[in-house]
Amino acid sequence: MISYTLIRSKRKTTEIQVRVDGVIVRAPKRLGIGEIDRFVASKEAWIIKKQAEIEKQLVAVKNQPKVNLLTKDELTALANQALAVIPERVVHYARIIGVDYGRITIKNQRTRWGSCSSKGNLNFNCLLMLTPLEVIDSVVVHELCHRKQMNHSKKFYEEVYKAYPEYDKWNKWLKDNGNAIMARNVVLDKTGKSKDAVTSPNLSTREKAKILALEWQAGDDLEEKLAKELREEILARHLVLQDFKMAKKV
Fold first, then answer.
1. Rounded distance, CA 249 to CA 247, Å?
2. What's the rounded Cα separation, in Å, for the pair 86 and 210?
């Protein structure tokens, strides 16, 4: 039986997340534990496969030669670049896809390039600024297409390819080069000590603590202007809206 951490909430689906720190199952509050166990058991092969992929990635990172880790100033510079570039790409592709969105947030993350919440809030990793613009576009399109399909189904990828035909090419680039880029980031615990497989730079505990909490959001004025412009266009045309996940409706 697969060991997992159960998180219940007000939701209508059961979802499995396979992460570096274990398997997370998110389920509706009233769903019986027996049904949850059966769902997890039915996906055991898929979970084991994803765990093996994560382990392979971790081994690859550990076997990499010493890398130049990013400093706080470099991370801040990347975040500022991301704030200047990514919101504009979101507006551009949101028009093409025909969706709206909520808040845009730029984060310093080690496991994800982007995410889209059920409310349409978008998160993007500042490390995307170390990739080609085509890769940034592929991530933006991926997350915006979740506004139509909150899954990774065939219909979801149909939307992705329709908006960005070269998605596979640049997604492969990110898979091939993403680990090396992520390895330049610093992952810290609450005490400021590095949890990374590589050697941390000579930063003070205070500086490390600042990196730990590093997060930026698009300025309200810019975000409100872009969001308002897009929403008006959508309404006028009467348009509708690498953690691994698997979900099902209950």
1. 7
2. 23
Q: Is 25 helix (H, G, I), strand (E, B) or coil?
A: strand
Q: What backbone phi and psi angles, to 5 degrees, belong to 190?
A: -70, -15
pLDDT digits (tens, 9 = 90+) for 1-30: 889 999 999 888 899 988 888 899 999 999
Cα four-point dihedral sign 79, 85, 91, 93: negative
CA atoms of 208 and 216, how far apart (whole Å): 17
Same domain, yes or no: 76 and 58: no
Domain membership flag for residue 67: no
CATH of the domain at 193: 3.30.2010.10
Q: Which two three-digit tokens encode residue 153? A: 């189904």
Cβ density class 125-159: b for 16+ within 10 Å, e for less: bbbbbbbeeebbbbbbbbbbbbbbebebeeebeeb
Nearest to 129 by CA among 159, 108, 99: 108
Domain-embedded: residue 184: yes
pTM above 0.85, yes or no: no
